[in-house]
Amino acid sequence: MAFFVLLSTVSFTIGKHFCGDELIDVSVFVQADHCGMAMESDKNLVPEKKSCCNDEFEVVKGQDKLKITKYDDLQFDQQFFLSSFAYPYNKLFEGVPLQIIPHKNYSPPNLIADIQVLDQVFLI
């Protein structure tokens, strides 16, 4: 639910670069890559020509107002459904009873020799 709220409130910009009528690049959040045919505008040398390339930006706005509803504002049937859903769902996650481990404080005996090597018994 939090993911959907975040997704619906995020605004972002889609940038598109066209060369003539052909779409060259589309990008989200950053400026689109150019095709390399953009005209350099040096006003002293060449009179200004119209470029064949253009950029379009499309802004997708997320919602900026959220409606917050309290439990008391809900109707009785909605409160009943919410309560009857939440109670069994909460019971699914009850803790496991504490288990007693009888050999927790037991220390194993010291090994003097490796019995498997002495008897030459190996698992393959």
TrEMBL record:
InterPro entries in the record: DUF8199, HYC_CC_PP
Pfam families referenced in this protein's UniProt entry, alphabetically: DUF8199
Superkingdom of this entry's organism?
Bacteria
The name on file for this protein is: Uncharacterized protein
